[in-house]
Design goal:
The structure is a single chain. It contains 13 helices and 14 strands. By secondary structure, it is α/β, with parallel strands linked by helices. The protein folds into two domains: 256 residues, Ribonuclease Z/Hydroxyacylglutathione hydrolase-like (Metallo-beta-lactamase, Chain A, 4-Layer Sandwich), CATH 3.60.15; 53 residues. It is globular and about 75 Å long. It binds zinc ion (2 copies).
Length: 328
């Protein structure tokens, strides 16, 4: 069974759990670890069974709980290389040692320890004579393990950017995590290397596209033949123009690297979109510059030619509580 649960969606935090086969992944971790766990348990997902976290981009509403969650569960985090670097810069306080300096220090300490070990070995010819005995094999194995630990810098929990494991992916290059296939695609947004995903498992395809200023051809291409589409419907144009944000932020949201308006999403749904998905979830809905009714009316109008989708299967993701799981 494939299960898709939006735990939170919006400018105060984004996170979704996707499970398929024996694999369970978190897309973004934009709530505190505590809150993520609480919401997962509320929808019947066990946090301890998560296998990995995949990250769309480095904005805080997508990564604020990332390191604590990954550390607590001891699971890998998948980023593009540029997003990982940006995240690391963001999370590392400037007054502390930088990650690079810390790695360099670790490398130096490891080299010193290795040099000491080699000297000790040279000074003890009897040890080599004992080669071949079981005790010697065991001792060698232990020493090899000790050296291996010495080569890797010890987990430095004081460094906020330390993660149990980091994996890099590239937009346009699909990869798999256990039973789930992940196809990352580039999105136009004001982050260093933002992506959306098409996730596949058990023959089900799920499109995940939030945080994008418009829908370019490569994104249109990806959002086809899906069983479920999560797309943002961020703001109402009039509410944004007349709303409380300073002009600079309004410009940012409206730009080609900002967010999709209700109108932009509606236009996509009524024209380019193939209408194949059984479910459409509208997400990243602004709490200041939008209203759920406006989002719904706009999308319903756009999908009026497909009434079956509108009745039960057009859903609005929420900021403050999870959406019921969708299962296939
Ligand atoms: Zn966002
Ligand atoms: Zn963003």
């Amino acid at each position: 069974m494939v299960r898709f649960t939006v735990l939170a969606s919006g400018s105060k935090g984004n996170s979704t759990v996707v499970s398929g086969g024996r694999t369970r992944i978190l897309v973004d971790a934009g709530l505190s670890c505590r809150e993520l766990f609480r919401r997962m348990r509320a929808v019947g997902e066990e946090p301890e069974r998560l296998d990995a976290i995949i990250v769309t981009h480095e904005h805080q509403d997508h990564v604020s709980g990332l390191s604590v969650t990954a550390r607590k569960l001891g699971i890998p985090v998948y980023f593009t290389e540029a997003t990982y670097s940006a995240w690391k810069r963001w999370i590392t306080p400037h007054h502390k040692m930088s990650y690079a300096e810390w790695r360099e220090q670790g490398r130096k300490q490891a080299a010193e320890r290795q040099a000491e070990a080699v000297e000790a070995e040279d000074a003890d010819p009897e040890e080599r004579e004992a080669e071949g005995t079981l005790a010697a094999v065991e001792a060698a194995a232990q020493e090899a393990m000790a050296q291996e630990t010495a080569v890797k810098p010890a987990p430095h929990k004081a460094d906020p950017s330390w993660l149990p494991a980091v994996e890099h992916f590239q937009p346009g290059k699909p990869f798999t995590i256990g039973d789930i296939s992940v196809s990352p695609f580039t999105t136009p947004h004001d982050a260093v290397d933002p992506v959306g995903f098409v996730l596949g498992a058990e023959g089900i395809r799920i499109g995940y596209a939030t945080d994008l200023g418009y829908i370019p051809p490569n994104v249109r291409e990806q959002l086809r033949e899906l069983n479920l589409l999560l797309i943002e419907s961020n703001h109402d144009l009039e509410m944004l123009r007349d709303g409380p944000y300073p002009w600079s932020i309004k410009q940012r949201v409206l730009s080609r690297v900002g967010h999709l308006s209700n109108d932009a999403t509606a236009e996509f749904l009524s024209t380019v979109y193939d209408g194949r998905a059984s479910y459409i979830i509208l997400g990243h809905i602004s709490e200041n510059n939008n209203l759920p009714e406006l989002v719904r009316v706009s999308a319903e109008r756009a999908l009026s030619a497909r009434p079956s989708l509108v009745t039960d299967h057009l859903l609005l993701a929420r900021q403050r509580e999870p959406l019921s799981s969708i299962c296939f």
